[in-house]
Amino acid sequence: MVCISSERPGRYNFAAGPAMLPAEVLAQIREELPDWQGSALSILEQPFTGAAFKQLMAETEQQLRALLAIPPNYRVLFLQGGASAQFGLLPLNLLRAGQCADYLDSGHWARKAIAEARRHAPVNIVASGAAEAFSALPPFERWQLAPDAGYCHITSNETGNGLQVHDFPDLAVPLVADMTSDFLTRPVPVERFGLIYASAQKNLGVAGLCLVIIRDDLLRAPPRGLPAAFSYAVQAEQDSRFNTPPTFALYVAGLMLRWIARRGGLAAMATAARERSRRLYRRIDTSEFYRCPQQPADRSTINVCFQLADARLLETFLARAADDGLLNLRGHGAIGGVRASLYNAMPLAGVERLTAFMNDFERLHG
Which residues bind pyridoxal 5'-phosphate per the record (predicted)? Predict the structure, then answer.
């Protein structure tokens, strides 16, 4: 393996996804791409039914289980597509006849999940942050859970709104979480969840792969009308090989899992995330030139969203930042402003460069 610094001098990618990859992971991909494990074939050409690729899948699952301390009564599925596909597949796979689904309305992506779930089942909104313009998360004490709910869905981190659930409730019904943007950035109590799902393109590699961690008792025969490839039970029975899995994305996920483990695991990732976001929020909060409307207790350590007090300067800010090697800082299209996504691969040096740029920009335009 070619081992070089995780920092690529001169530029930092703050994109919400597909996100920044560590330079050493990119170097390993480049080195192995023409000939994977001496097979004389690229990883792109490996048959998913072959012994070598089956071994790769098994090792990747074991690495994930070790990092997250996944209990033995949970299955890990490697599925095609992103988290958005699961928005509709969750009610189809998890609900029994007569059940509804509980959802926490926490921001843009929760609303997308709610809209899709409503196409397939009754939805109960347990609480909403809309009245506060999604500047805070509704506290658990305000949740109104439905007695006939088959599961309760949360979005653990809102990439567009800059909010993050920091404590997870222990519910009587299965707790389901879209963890796409903060997956593997911190330890989580997996045993409190019935199902966790996450797209890979934030902290686990490249687009095309969605991981689903599901408790055994929630694996049910697919209902009439649900294609077998979209059944969690069928995919679990077939070890995620009912159809061709996203082979390259799965290979990159394995590299990313090893990269995380080498750097101290999820506890180290959480410490780094807190420090990166702390420095950036401190820069925002000590200025009247920048402002972050999210309440400090609910702020995301992964997606820092903020505004310029003079919105007319936004395009200039983004253009000058790009010239300085600070890329993809534009906020979500539905929300606007600035968004700095601080996924695991982002070094502290990237945040230091950003805050230094913000200092200079304020001096010029403040």
Answer: 83-84, 109, 159, 178, 201, 243-244
- Dump pLDDT digits (tens) for 301-359: 999 999 999 999 999 999 999 999 999 999 999 899 999 999 999 999 999 999 999 99
H/E element holding 351?
A: helix 348-365
What is the architecture of the domain spanning 12-21+264-365?
Alpha-Beta Complex (3.90)
Task: Return d(Cα 65, Cα 163) in angstroms, integer.
Answer: 27
The verdict on whether residue 159 carries a ligand-binding annotation is yes
* Token output for 151: 């599961």
Overall pTM surpassing 0.85 (yes/no): yes
Structural element, H or E, at residue 88: helix 83-94
As given in the structure block, the two tokens for residue 99 are 């059940």
Q: Is position 244 annotated in a ligand binding site?
A: yes
Question: Is the pLDDT reported for residue 1 higher than 60?
Answer: no
The pLDDT value given to residue 10: 77
CB proximity list for 90: less than 8 A, separation 6 or greater: 101, 113, 117, 151, 153, 176, 195
Is 83 annotated among the ligand-binding residues? yes
Q: What is the mean pLDDT of the chain?
A: 95
CATH class held by domain 28-262: alpha beta
Q: Which residues are catalytic?
A: 109, 178, 202
Phi first, then psi: give them for residue 228, nearest 5 degrees: -60, -35
Nearest to 106 by CA among 145, 153, 171, 148: 153
Does position 9 have pLDDT exceeding 90, yes or no?
A: no
DSSP structure string for 1-66: -----SS-TT-EE--SSS----HHHHHHHHHHSSSGGGSSS-GGG--TTSHHHHHHHHHHHHHHHH
365 CB-near residues (< 8 Å, 6+ apart): 289, 310, 313, 316
The identity of residue 362, as a single letter, is E
pLDDT number for residue 6: 41
Which sequence spans correspond to the domains of the chain?
12-21+264-365, 28-262
